[in-house]
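Quick one:
INPUT:
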């Protein structure tokens, strides 16, 4: 039952990410660790559009079969196995990894200075809480994937310069909540920049206090967010659970 619910949660996140237009066609990958395993994980297969993914579509990549699966790109994109495999193995809290090239986070990643100043509650949520991989080296093959994994540290949000965004968290709900609010924060920041007006940047003290407020506000908000999403999908199109 635990495994089935985890797969249902991840399938719901795929569907909702498509609804939010944060996907990139059949590219990008989400993964979640197999409960009780030491590195095996489920991930979306090759050629699957986020809007159609079902729980039963997710492919199990067993830890001792990484190299074997990389030789079968028709099943799973090898870059997914490289990136997600490296991070799941090296980052203890990364039980779920969501990687997208969403519009606003990717735009931020393309700036010479990709920092996110504290100008509203959402940007303050991530104050001093974003890891940056600043040396884009091409597609996510083995060396690039190892560098990504080494850049995360204890953070849950990794901005990939010239590339996009990745969240890594202990649960699917937390990884998606971070992804959703980071994209919203980037949208607010880039929209504010587009006005050409001077930004009203909060003090370091207020920004840090607000970030801590976010962390202490409610430990189950991410779970409630995903529960609400699944409730909508259960009414509109429960096929994600098939």
């Amino acid at each position: 039952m635990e495994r089935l619910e985890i797969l249902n949660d991840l399938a719901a996140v795929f569907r909702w990410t498509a609804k939010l237009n944060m996907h990139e066609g059949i590219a990008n990958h989400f993964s979640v660790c197999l409960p009780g395993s030491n590195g095996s994980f489920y991930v979306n297969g090759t050629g699957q559009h986020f809007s159609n993914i079902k729980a039963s579509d997710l492919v199990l990549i067993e830890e001792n079969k990484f190299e074997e699966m990389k030789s079968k790109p028709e099943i799973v994109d090898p870059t997914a196995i490289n990136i997600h495999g490296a991070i799941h193995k090296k980052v203890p809290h990364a039980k779920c990894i969501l990687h997208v090239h969403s519009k606003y986070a990717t735009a931020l990643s393309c700036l010479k200075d990709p920092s996110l100043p504290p100008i509203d509650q959402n940007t303050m949520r991530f104050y001093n809480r974003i890891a940056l991989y600043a040396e884009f080296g091409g597609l996510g093959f083995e060396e690039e994937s190892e560098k990504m994994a080494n850049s995360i540290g204890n953070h849950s949000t990794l901005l990939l310069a010239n590339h996009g965004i990745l969240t890594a968290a202990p649960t699917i709900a937390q990884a998606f909540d971070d992804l959703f609010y980071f994209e919203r924060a980037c949208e607010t920041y880039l929209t504010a920049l587009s006005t050409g007006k001077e930004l009203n940047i909060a003090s370091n003290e207020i920004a840090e206090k607000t970030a801590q407020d976010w962390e202490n506000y409610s430990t189950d908000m991410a779970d409630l967010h995903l529960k609400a999403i699944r409730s909508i999908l259960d009414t509109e199109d429960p096929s994600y659970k098939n």
